[in-house]
Amino acid sequence: MTEFRDDFLWGGAVAAHQLEGGWQAGGKGVSLADVMTAGDNDTAREITDGVLPGRNYPNHTAIDFYGNYRDDVKLFAELGLKCFRTSIAWTRIFPNGDEAEPNEAGLKFYDDLFDDLLKYHIEPVITLSHFEMPYHLVTEYGGWRNRKLIDFFVKFATVVFKRYQHKVKYWMTFNEINNQTGLNEWGLFTNSGILVKSGEDAEKAMYQAGHYESVASALAVQIGHQINPNFQIGAMFAMGPTYPATPAPADVMKAERAMQANYWFADVQCKGKYPSWLQRYFERKNFDLDLTLADLDVIKAGTVDYIGFSYYASHVIKADANEPVDFMTPMANHEVKNPALTRSDWGWEIDPMGLRYALNWFSDRYDLPLFIVENGLGAFDKKDADGQINDDYRIDYLRQHIAQMKLAVTIDGVDLMGYTPWGFIDLVSAGTGQMDKRYGLIYVDKNDAGEGTLKRGKKASFNWYQHVIKTNGADLD
Ligand code: P53
Fold first, then answer.
1. Minimal CA–CA distance to 448: which of 423, 428, 466, 464?
2. pLDDT per residue over 113-130, tens digit each?
3. What residues in the chain have per-residue pLDDT under 70?
4. For residues 19 and 85, is the Cβ–Cβ distance under 8 A?
5. Range of the domain at 133
6. What are the two backbone dihedrals, phi and then psi, of residue 68, each rounded to the nearest 5 degrees?
7. What is residue 40's predicted lDDT score, i.e. its pLDDT?
8. Atom of ligand 1 nearest to the CA of 429
9. Quick check: pTM over 0.85?
10. Mutate-to-test residue for ligand 1 from 36, 127, 176, 309, highest number of ligand atoms within 8 A of CB
């Protein structure tokens, strides 16, 4: 029976700001991640007004991949990775975002990194924008509220597409572009550089920013294909299927609308058009968005080649007793716990079969190749007496998810390109800014307080995943 493709992209995923450090090295500018403090399990990260003295900004040094990448890549090669997903820090290339010329030292860093990866036959998989746009674009232009951001992003994309056209084939435009549909402060800031002002309609701001990002993404797709027709340029969504709390039709309709509202970006980026329910919603709400017919043509002509997505957890939703007829209650939280599932230490539902569901859902709706570019378990790791980390809980999590992927491929016929577990080398958590929320198969000696030698070490999951890759997923034991 055919299982995973012969060229299946087994890999690992990270993002520049979460592992590189070197926040001012080689002329790098200040990014969004550089003004976010460390939080923890119950404390949210704080977004400060610029970089303030005496505060703890974990992304400034992260795990110093910037200084250690040669040794790290050697370890990735030993793990057997076929691909490595990272992002290009926009602020290394355009430190403020609005310069006329790119920063050569930043471009050179990624040249060297990609050369190193290719030396070991590791394919780079590159996200253009992963929660790390130049902070200057926030203070000076208001982030993605501003149409000018399209030009800045397209320029950045064009520069790196041209520069790396012979080194990078797989690209994604915006990481988890739909993360902001939840309308929380964190998502709007990290995705779009928007700090909601008092009196501002957060929902309208999100749709306006999302529209400009959709246009920017579609332009990048078109330009990328002109530069190199072999480029595979994907979208990237945070996928967490939403299930109805009960079989009551109102709960089912509520869950359906929650999915539509979370994945409208997928309709725009994959089908090249806005879904009809959302067009009606814009009209009813009188948002009066800056959305032109020319924009709609761009969106139509710039659909993506594949769908990349993250998958960590699923969600359950319940309709209100007096649910509005459009089932849209954007600022309200209707989430309920799923009694059939257990949760991680951070309260994320663990749902391996939800991954098979997600793969089927995307495949049915968009008929595109799929790439799972993030998945994993954030957990506290403890060293044994002999200094080893036996992370069987992480192995279990990954094993169960890969088993469901296999069913999606063999039984359901889903076209799956690859799998890159998130944070396969310990790094700074995006949500909490912690080091001790660990996803890694490779341990990095650094804790939440920022103490540690930064020494790398293999966890039990390293050896396990190495074997999975060697057998192309045939043996998951
Ligand atoms: P952390 C929320 C929900 C789903 C995915 O997240 C998310 C988030 C943000 O926290 O982000 C993705 O580090 C993101 C990565 C991030 C990873 O999931 O909060 O693309 O940058 O690190 C895991 O545990």
1. 428
2. 999 999 999 999 999 999
3. 1-2
4. no
5. 9-470
6. -115, 5
7. 85
8. 13
9. yes
10. 176
